[in-house]
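Lecture 7 notes: from sequence to structure.
We start with the chain below.
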Amino acid sequence: MNGNGGKAPKVSATHIAAVYDTTGRVVRLHHVVVFEGGKPITKEEAQKEAIELARRSGHDAAKLNSLVVEHLPAMGAQFRVDVKKKKLIALDAPPRPARGAASKPPKVR
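Predicted structure tokens for the same chain:
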């Protein structure tokens, strides 16, 4: 059955806030989708909310920064922030094992 998604409201804005520490390690990615007719949310509000959620997860908010990007550089990747350039960078993902290959348990540190 094909359809057009019904009468869902249109997206008026999308904000992706990356929360990172002083080394550029991303501790949280926060996606905000604003629909037409909904409460407008600014980039600054998205950043503030992202840092607050990271704080609630146990991170020291005083040591965090945030960066809003229009889109993710790669889907399903891990990210870090180049703190000098203020740019979100996708990290190289480790190669996936061949289909049907036995997987090794992850190393515990």
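Points to note: The two ends are 49 Å apart (CA to CA). The chain has one domain: 11-90.
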